[in-house]
Design a protein that fits this description.
Blueprint: H1 2-17, H2 20-27, H3 31-45, E1 50-52, E2 57-59, H4 61-85, E3 93-99, H5 107-118, E4 122-128, E5 142-146, E6 155-162, E7 164-168, H6 170-174, H7 182-186, E8 189-193, E9 200-204, E10 207-211, E11 215-220, H8 223-231, E12 237-240, H9 241-250, E13 254-255, E14 265-271, H10 278-289
Helix pairs in contact: 1-2, 1-3, 1-4, 2-3
């Protein structure tokens, strides 16, 4: 019977993650072990649960019929364990977290370090990337994301705000006519971020103006590379304020059209509302939500 319960839990993880390998990352099991549990379960009920191919995995009609009941079983088990451990301060487990690849001395990072110190039995794995990963498919328990969130089945909670500044190097500004109006700005060279929309929105005295720059000199895939390109005089772009504060103070970067500001963005914790680590994830999110409202990523 216990093998059946274990197999059902693995079945739910595979159905949610979309592949054996992704389920394995989430459960900390090898792909072969995941496959073994699914095969044993299929033998037990004498019917296939998944259509398998080299490129895709989908539920059979029998798998679809079984999924809701199996998911309720897993959720009931999680609730039972959470109930028993709600009053315990000593958390045990592991968390995989993805967050932007910049701001390594930010309040968010400091809160994660403190959480790890407070709960030494929780193994923390942090993966820094400026691309938006698929939490379920890649086996992450929590993501820190910026700005507007796309509609999805993921849960989210605002944990702070994020300030930016539109900047350029003095070398670039000296190479062209003065930038005094929005029309002047639209014709400038811009550095494009692969993972962000090219549209720029500026605000002044309650007025919002959005436009797409006409010229992109170079495209990069990280905030760090974008900062380097701007410092090299390759164009203009908005940057996280914490990343460039020292550059601006030294005069290596200059704010462009300082009367116009960039809207403040939200910093969000995003997580899947399923899986075996709901309690751990909730406790970390509570710690992040206690940050001052000026928290940067």
């Amino acid at each position: 019977m216990f093998d059946d319960y274990r197999g059902l839990a693995v079945f739910v993880a595979v159905a949610d993650a979309g592949s054996f390998s992704a389920a394995g990352r989430r459960l900390r099991l090898s792909t072969s072990v995941v496959s073994h549990h699914i095969s044993r379960l299929e033998e037990r009920i004498d019917t296939p649960l998944f259509f398998r191919s080299t490129r895709s995995l989908s539920l059979t009609s029998e798998g679809q019929r079984m999924l809701d009941a199996a998911r309720r079983m897993v959720q009931a088990g999680e609730e039972a364990l959470d109930t028993l451990s709600d009053d315990r301060d000593q958390l045990v487990g592991a968390l995989r977290i993805t967050l932007p690849a910049f701001g390594t001395n930010s309040a968010v990072h400091q809160a994660i370090w403190q959480f790890s110190k407070d709960h030494p039995m929780v193994a923390m794995s942090l993966f820094a990337s400026d691309r938006q990963v698929d939490l379920i498919a890649e086996g992450y328990d929590l993501a820190i994301r910026l700005g507007r969130l796309a509609d999805s089945s993921l849960k989210n909670r605002k944990i702070g705000v994020f300030h930016r500044m539109l900047v350029a190097a003095p070398e670039y500004l000296a190479s062209r006519p003065p930038i005094e109006t929005l029309d002047d700005l639209k014709t400038c060279d811009f550095v494009s971020f692969e993972m962000l929309p090219d549209e720029v929105t500026l605000t002044r005295d309650g007025e919002d103006v959005s436009f797409t720059p006409e010229n992109f000199r170079i495209e990069v895939d990280t905030i760090t590379a974008g900062r380097a390109a701007i410092l090299a005089g390759l164009g203009i772009q908005n940057m996280p304020l914490d990343e460039i504060a020292e550059d601006v103070a030294r005069g290596d970067l200059v704010e462009v059209l300082p009367d116009w500001k960039l809207p403040v963005m939200g910093v969000f914790a995003v997580w899947p509302d399923s899986g075996p680590k709901k309690k751990l994830t909730r406790r970390l999110i509570d710690a992040l939500a206690a940050l001052p409202d000026t928290a940067q990523p």
